[in-house]
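fwd from M.: "can u put these together and see what the complex looks like"

so here's what she sent:
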Amino acid sequence: MTTVRAVETWTLDPLTTYVTEAGARLVLLMTPAGQVLAQSGFLRAVDVMSASALGAAIMASTAELARQLGQTPFAALNHQGQRHGIFLSGFVTDRGPLIVLVVYELDVSSLGLVQLFLEQLVADLRAASPKAGATRKVLAADFERELNESLNTLFGR
Amino acid sequence: MRSLDLITRVRGVRGAMVVARADGLVVAEQLMEGIKGSTVAALTASLAGRLHRAMVAAGLGPSQFWHLQCEQGAVLAVPAGDGLLMVAVTEPEVNVGLVRLELLRAAEAAA
């Protein structure tokens, strides 16, 4: 069974349920700025950093594309290969806007399952999330230390 | 879709769907109110995929028909060509043979 590790512990139960139910291989919960709140399935810190930066960048790009088209931001994005699918979705909680990145194997899961259980994940996260402002602002001077602490937490060091 | 019309015309059928097998998404549906089409589609496609692999692993060949009987009804599914799945949601007292026949006809038409 894949372990979910969280920097913000309120995300732990909803994400653990989601990973099990949706059969997701990798899951990353982050802010639109790419700050990771929780992860499941990643083995190396460098992979989490890359995936969060790329995921956040993709969401920012599609949001801007939607803006230029005069639309509201896209709710979700799915990119499917031969063996794996990558699913990205943004939603708002009391903690602020969040992004979830899911990598699923087509043999084990499907886009339908990933989307189906995402509804439950969003509801669970909204119910569990702290109010906006409860989280501390990260100062530039503390950024590296905060990042290292977060990565240590995410990988159980 | 005419195939779905024919399936839902059978007495006791509460809805019928064409589902993409690989991703569990609804392609077409005719459902009574109260049936969550996307949920049924995602879970049925997932179950069908696993059952299919189990059948093949057991040396029985590809699956042809699934009948999941529950207390208050049943879900019937038939794989079709082009990676589709014909699904019917029924009441408990339905003529399963007739629904199966319509599902097989719909699958043939889709192929």
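replying to her w this: Chain A has one domain: 4-133.
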